[in-house]
Amino acid sequence: MRIGILFILSISSLGLLGQSAERFKNFHGLRDPRRQMQFFEAEGYDIFIERVAYSLDEKGISKIKKKYSIKEGQLKTDTLLNLKTLVASKETHGLKGLYSFYLIPAQEKVTIVIGFTRAQSRDSILERDFVKSYQTNQIPESVYTKIEIDSINFVGRTIQLGPICHWMAPHNIQCPDRGQMNWAIFDNHKDAEAYRDSRLEMARNGTLMNVKEEEWVSLKFEGQETKAKRTKVKIQLPKLIMGGSNVLVVYYVTAHVRGKFVTCILSHYTDDIGAYKLPPLLGEVLELDQ
Fold it and tell me: CA 53 → CA 67, 200, 238, distances in Å?
């Protein structure tokens, strides 16, 4: 008996969906309907998708460079995707930031810009896979979460938070007076540690931040015994402008959690609720040694 064409197409589609699911397992996406943009965090990358009213002629390219503050960006052609790209690097807070922008012509005088930023080395395969998935409408819906939340999926575990918390960015949540945490998921421990170290270095070199104390502390992260770098950071702004304390306590932790390598950066102000130990949000994932 011959295999029907519909069966073959179904199997092919399942294969593509499976590949997409595997590629996007470390991604988190948010849609911003007000600005008609999409934002993602993936393995240390900050990614956005934006539609701009510029063509891809010399004048339009110049406007795109100005919009994204990459006047020194090099215009190239990605031959595998057959797309124009802008590639740049800038030093910020003592670290080299790597920027790549893929330019997709949408219609006359309209371009879709997919931008990637990361402090570590570029992953061209990840970038191309993401762009191709966008072009073929294969970014899984499971990647996205709603802007309004009452719970989050934290590395495979649901944490109930209630309506007081909100997304600051993908994989970055804040609960006013209760702490903030952002995280990234990687396929190996080396990349997770490199991301942790790069974020710590950014804090050390921040223009409005002064790291006053640093120490390694023993704690439990998601129930596992590990060590974290704990810092105390003074924000160089008056308390009156801050509306309270201008001193942050920040934990940088990397661990293997439920089969994934995770770096999590958790912070709270010294006058947050429960700050003498751990504010409620941090207490969901951390447990300090007595």
Answer: 11, 37, 40
